[in-house]
Every structure is written in C-alpha cells, then in structure tokens.
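Ticket #4471: complex job returned nothing on first submit. Input attached below:
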Amino acid sequence: DGGITQSPKYLFRKEGQNVTLSCEQNLNHDAMYWYRQDPGQGLRLIYYSQIVNDFQKGDIAEGYSVSREKKESFPLTVTSAQKNPTAFYLCASSIDHFTGLNTGELFFGEGSRLTVL
Amino acid sequence: QKEVEQDPGPLSVPEGAIVSLNCTYSNSAFQYFMWYRQYSRKGPELLMYTYSSGNKEDGRFTAQVDKSSKYISLFIRDSQPSDSATYLCATHNTDKLIFGTGTRLQVFP
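Support reply: We reran it on our side without changes. The output follows.
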C-alpha cells in the first residue's frame, strides 16, 4: 500500500539528547513536510523540502534539522537546542509543492509523539 | 491577530444533526481553502478544498467560502458517530499552508 510511514510512534528522550524521527514515503512525491502539533496551536511548519537535496525552514525551525538525501526519506532531528520538544510530530508529502499549496493535497503519516523526561 | 482563527470546541451533537464548523481568516488575498479531518492519534486527511468563493458539496459535506466576510464553513448533514474527530481548516499564503487550531466534534448516538 502506498503511504507515509513514520517511526517511532512514541519516543521518550532525556533532556540534552538528540533524537531522529523517521519519515518514509512510497508515493513518489517530490515535496515533503514536517509539522509540529501542540494542543490549541494547530499545525506549525518546521521544515519542508521541494526536491531531493534541498529544504527550507518553516516557521519554527530553531532546534531542528533535516536532510533529504533520497526522494523517499525526510528524517527530522530534534536537537538538544529545541527548548520545548515535547509534542506530536507529523510528516506529510505532496506530489509537488505547488499542488500541495493550491489543493491542500497533503498525505500525512500517523505521527510520532515525543516526550522529554 | 492570527491568520486563521477557529473555535476549538468541543462541539457535541446527537446523531443525525447538522453540524456547522467555522473559521475566519485575516488576509483577503487568500484564495484556496481546505478542510481536514483528524481522528484521535492519527494524521489529518484532506476532506475538501475550494477555490475563491462559493459552495462545494461532497456527499454529506458542504464547504462554503464567503470572501466578503473572510469566513469559511464546513457543514455536515446527517452527522454520524464516525464523524467524531477534530476538523482543521487551512488556507495558504505564498509558500506554506496555514492551519486553524482545529475544532473537536463529538457525535453521540
């Protein structure tokens, strides 16, 4: 089945540790996105990538890093510099960035819930 | 002022009711509007999108945009318990989607 796979579903981290969230898609989509969802704040864009080996910062990129070495994969690293990392993280893809913007046709994964202890 | 405002709810209705979910937006230049449904502990899924003003219907769902008042609505007819979810509105500026905070809907049998 085609779709977006995020792992792990739940992750616990001690303060000061970096963690990497995995996002893989087999939809052959060019554009991929990382969002953070907090109660009462909706979805906020962390990073997005329109094409392999290219990515742009979103609204809340500080304390996060990404890479896009393969079309299928867009991992997110939550670094120790992120002051409040406990959240629900969503990865999404669209056939291309323009289509995603105009039609909203983003395909989301099931999310990764990160808790900092 | 937030670019997209949405009442968080929760909204609780009996099965069969007509549900109205609403958002307001601040920028009159916004042209594309979307509604997503998000079940608990899942990612959102696109329900409908509309361009500019007017209505769009898909089964029990109708999306409506009123650009004069910067108001977007999603109507659900004959609501079902399976419609219980959080509904997010969204629009876009030049380079990203902007989401509302979501309204939690509970349809009880």
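Helices of chain A lie at 97-103. Closing as resolved unless it happens again.
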